[in-house]
Write a structure and sequence with these properties.
The complex is a heterodimer of chains A (360) and B (325). With 360 residues, chain A is α/β, with parallel strands linked by helices. In chain A, 47% of the residues lie in helices and 9% in strands. Chain A is built from 14 helices and seven strands. Chain A has a five-stranded parallel beta sheet with strand order 1-2-3-7-6, sandwiched between helices. A two-stranded antiparallel ribbon of chain A has the order 4-5. In chain A, strand 4 and strand 5 form a beta hairpin. Chain A is globular, with a radius of gyration of 21 Å. The termini of chain A are far apart. With 325 residues, chain B is α/β, with parallel strands linked by helices. The N and C termini of chain B lie far apart (46 Å). Classes of the chains: A alpha/beta (360), B alpha/beta (325).
């Protein structure tokens, strides 16, 4: 006899639109996107791949701070973000800087965030987001609150949050979904299942065959999607968004993906826990390769166009690094000033002490 | 003016602020129809509706996260943690998250959350209900920690806490909930956060206390008076930030100090106060500053509770030590 969980897992088939060859395998699910919109999706993925390569290089040169590589996850990150409206609120994990950038965080601020500068955490007016979360899962419970707040304000917007496969083991993961379900609030919970939580494979995180099925216990909608297929991720998120703003409650989206690089640039060595065969297997599913094939077949993408995006990305990244370099360094007095609305007397004393130190 | 117990004063403060500001939301485990396990939110759901006063699923971390998320949408959340011993479940949402909202947004966002929670010994609760964990909170920059000792202060401090634009941990000693009544004005009023109060004036020794230990200190002062010792009692009211000026002023006047806390001795608020006093007023001291505190064990729930908890006799004993030094 099959376990209940196995029977449930069978109901979560991976949703896919484009196969690895860029061929449409699910014609009726094809989104109504114009050629320009399709090209925009490709542009963003190419740009983000370049940004990742440059960030890794900058990090190795000691010119960046904390950085979590993104290559491999472009479809999951950007396909879901592309389904959002400007009023929607993003609660990212630390690898989810690209979504913030395409939601409106200026590139130089992304670099300042990496360097631990508070200006990197200041979202521009109209960019609804928190800065990337470090504690795994904390953003899930906060998302329930943002979504409930939107519901109370009668907004037609959603709160969307991201974590990884490891994040689904946290209590906050379940608490966040359960609260959002109980309040029937407009939330989208995305799990980018990139197969490894640092080094621990997903099989060691859970006895569940899919992560999407964890929605069942919370009583909310769940879907597993090919996270290397930007159109599938886009459609799944778009539909989740529609349900949410129509009062039909939250959705959990599991996107099957892979990070090509290390967990972060702080010394992780993936060869200690991943085989080359596995890397190769996932690289065959690359989101850029398959979408490029799809667009080329449609006759709306060329090597020239891609090179233009690459050159523009490199230029803009160079300028953004310069802008970050030119930003005055964060001081201890900045930190003190960011603790309370009005400084209590002990911090006033410490402010004076550090002003004196900093003026030396 | 009405005569109110501390729990009535707290309900009155919540009602006042729910009326005053439509962004105020009151929520937590059993706070809705049931009115909370201590009835602090009694009648509020009927009066303000389920949209403003509501039950949450039973998960403290979820409640903390909910408060943070709601504050991004312009709300002023007033969640209840049913007993403060359960705070460990919500430590990240408090110390890791809401306390850092200003920092983590480069001061473009804030979390005007007031977490109310009962704590304190002497009422025979099960394990993990009575512990004095305010020191954990006071160590976290970005938070304010408020502990009233009487009904009048409870109402004014809670109103100030809710109106404050930074997160406040508002701790309500269970033994004080219904132990006595005070004159409490029916209108809205604020008691300033971060300001201590000299509850009783005296010249020979300063007793510094907060929460239920204020009552114990006053009782000790009354006994000491019979022996001709004039004790001043300073009620901190807010333990973070500390009102250092009021403390130091009293120390300069009396030259002798006993700091009283219900919490265990190690690394507590009393230690911080002793450090501040010796840094700022050592030449005014006639004797070492002594502490009255609980032993460094887990809370003695039910068995041995009466001996474990500091009381007025312990305070009198320490005062005699500093007087006779």
């Amino acid at each position: 006899m099959k376990r209940t969980a196995e029977k449930i897992a069978e109901q979560f088939e991976t949703f896919q639109i484009l196969d690895e060859e860029g061929k449409i395998v699910n014609e009726e699910a094809m989104p109504e996107l114009s050629d320009d919109e399709l090209k925009e999706l490709m542009t963003r993925m190419v740009y983000t791949r370049i940004l990742d390569q440059r960030s890794i290089a900058l990090n190795r040169q000691g010119r960046l701070g904390f950085y979590a590589p993104t290559a491999g996850q472009e479809a999951s990150q950007l396909g879901s973000q592309y389904a959002l409206e400007q009023d929607d609120f993003i609660l990212p994990g630390y690898r989810d800087v690209p979504q913030l950038i395409w939601h409106g965080l200026p590139l130089h601020k992304a670099f300042l965030f990496s360097r631990g500068h508070y200006i990197g955490n200041q979202m521009p007016e109209g960019v609804n987001a928190l800065s990337p979360q470090i504690i795994i899962g904390a953003q899930y419970v906060q998302t329930a609150g943002v979504a409930l707040g939107m519901k109370k304000r009668n907004k037609k917007s959603v709160a969307i949050t991201y974590t990884g496969d490891g994040g689904t083991s946290q209590g906050d993961f379940y608490e966040g979904m359960n609260f959002a379900g109980a309040f029937n609030s407009p939330a989208i919970f995305v799990v980018q299942n990139n197969q490894f939580a640092i080094s621990t494979p997903v099989e060691k995180q859970t006895a569940a065959d899919t992560l999407a099925q964890k929605a069942v216990a919370a009583g909310i909608e769940g879907i597993q999607v090919d996270g290397m297929d930007v159109l599938a991720v886009y459609v799944a998120t778009k539909e989740a968004r529609e349900r949410a703003v129509n009062g039909e409650g939250p959705t959990l989206i599991e996107a099957l993906t892979y990070r090509y690089g290390p967990h972060t640039m702080a010394g992780d060595d993936p060869t200690r826990y991943r085989s080359e065969d596995l890397d190769n297997e996932w690289e065959k599913r690359d989101p850029l390769v398959r979408f490029r094939k799809f667009l080329e077949k449609k006759g709306i993408w060329s090597e020239n166009q891609e090179n233009e995006v690459i050159e523009r990305a490199k230029e803009e990244i160079k300028n953004a690094v310069k802008e970050a370099d030119n930003t005055p360094k964060q001081k201890v007095t900045d930190l003190i000033g960011n603790m309370y609305e009005t400084l209590p007397s002990h911090l006033e004393e410490q402010m004076e002490e550090y002003k004196a130190k900093e003026s030396k | 003016m009405a005569q109110m117990t501390m729990i009535q004063a707290i309900t009155d403060a919540l009602r006042t602020e729910l009326k005053n500001d439509e962004n105020v939301l009151v929520f937590g485990e059993d706070v809705g129809q049931n009115g909370g396990v201590f009835r602090a939110t009694e009648g509020l759901q009927d009066e303000f509706g389920e949209d403003r006063v509501f039950d949450t699923p039973l998960a403290e971390s979820g409640i903390g996260g909910l408060a943070i998320g709601l504050s991004t949408q312009g709300f002023r959340p007033v969640p209840e943690i049913q007993f403060f011993g359960f705070v460990y479940e919500v430590m990240d949402s408090i110390s890791g998250q809401m306390a850092r909202m200003r920092y983590r947004s480069g001061n473009t966002m804030h979390a005007p959350v007031t977490i109310r929670s009962p704590f304190g010994g002497g009422v025979h609760t099960p394990e993990m209900h009575a512990d004095s964990l305010e020191g954990l909170m006071a160590q976290q920059p970005g938070l304010k920690v408020v502990i009233p000792s009487n009904p009048y202060d409870a109402k004014g401090l809670l109103i100030s806490s809710i109106r404050d634009n930074d997160p406040v941990i508002f701790l309500e000693h269970m033994k004080l909930y219904r132990s006595f009544r005070d004159e409490v004005p029916e209108e809205a009023y604020e008691v300033e956060l971060g300001k201590a109060k000299v509850t009783r004036e005296g010249n020979d020794v300063t007793l510094i206390a907060y929460g239920a230990m204020v009552q114990a200190s006053v009782k000790a002062a009354e006994e000491l008076e019979k022996d001709g010792v004039s004790a001043e009692v300073v009620d901190l009211r807010t333990i973070s930030p500390l009102d250092i000026d009021t403390i130091v002023e009293s120390v300069k006047k009396t030259g002798r100090v006993v700091v009283v806390q219900e919490a265990q001795r190690q690394a507590g608020i009393a230690s911080q106060i002793v450090a501040e006093i010796q840094e700022r007023a050592i030449l005014h001291l006639e004797a070492p500053v002594l502490r009255v505190a609980a032993p460094d064990t887990v809370y003695a729930f039910t068995q041995a509770e009466e001996v474990w908890l500091p009381n007025h006799n312990d305070i009198v004993e320490k005062v005699n030590d500093v007087i006779n030094f």
